[in-house]
Amino acid sequence: MNKNKVIVVFSGGQDSTTCLFWALKKYDEVEAVTFDYHQRHSEEIQVAKEITSELKVKHHILDMSLLNQLAPSALTREEIVVKDGEAGGLPSTFVPGRNLIFLSFATILARQIGAKHIVTGVCETDFSGYPDCRDVFIKSLNVSLNLSMDDQFVIHTPLMWLDKSETWKLADDLHALQYVRDKTLTCYNGIRGDGCGDCPACKLRKKGLEKYLIEKEN
Ligand SMILES: [Zn+2]
């Protein structure tokens, strides 16, 4: 197992692209994995392909269409409306088991390519109500995966305790702010860069960027 090799769970969005730059700075060998679960916007896969190609990162795409079959949500079905959870409920964008499945497959892939490290852009701070983005869940899964394969993988979550403005700062510190802003796709309506400006993902992203840019000037 190569201690300096890492696999980044990569969707082509702001968070995972920032994680990709973080990994490129920290590790000698970086590969990325994107899960194709027939996302609402196949554009996501295209964006992920383009970014990894530009950054010269080996890119794996795994077919996870079974997730769509098992767990329909607003991220996978056009007919389900994107909305926040009501009073403690889960948002309609929640895909049950997504991070459990993605991180398990990413770690199996890490084993196959001989990488010790796995990076994911999950974050507890802007807690959107996704239970599988919590730090305690990631740590628990890391232990289970190591036990299951009798190995010592390390799952890294560089964004876990950052809010969106701090995530923009990290991208800036990595000299990638403009790249992340222009090239990534976070918008639920499938529009790159600053997006539609109106969906929950765009609003969160925009609010964080504005906050960071104001702080940077002062
Ligand atoms: Zn949007």
Automatic annotation (TrEMBL):
Ligand binding (Zn(2+))? 187, 196, 199, 202
Task: Tell me what organism the protein belongs to.
Answer: Evansella cellulosilytica (strain ATCC 21833 / DSM 2522 / FERM P-1141 / JCM 9156 / N-4)
- Known catalytic reactions: 7-carboxy-7-carbaguanine + NH4(+) + 2 ATP = 7-cyano-7-carbaguanine + 2 AMP + 2 diphosphate + 2 H(+)
- Residues given in the record as ATP binding sites: 10-20
Task: List, alphabetically, the InterPro entries matched.
Answer: QueC, Rossmann-like_a/b/a_fold
Could you say which cofactors this protein requires?
Zn(2+)
Q: Which Pfam families match?
A: QueC (PF06508)
Q: Name one GO molecular function term.
A: ligase activity, forming carbon-nitrogen bonds
Q: Quaternary state and partners of this protein?
A: Homodimer.
Family membership, please give it: Belongs to the QueC family.
Keywords, alphabetical: ATP-binding, Ligase, Metal-binding, Nucleotide-binding, Queuosine biosynthesis, Zinc
Name of this protein: 7-cyano-7-deazaguanine synthase
Instruction: Name the Enzyme Commission number(s) assigned to this protein.
Output: 6.3.4.20
Q: Which NCBIfam families match?
A: 7-cyano-7-deazaguanine synthase QueC (TIGR00364)
Q: Which Gene3D superfamilies match?
A: HUPs
Q: Its pathway?
A: Purine metabolism; 7-cyano-7-deazaguanine biosynthesis
The free-text cofactor remark is: Binds 1 zinc ion per subunit.
Question: Which processes are annotated in GO (biological process)?
Answer: tRNA queuosine(34) biosynthetic process
Source domain of life: Bacteria
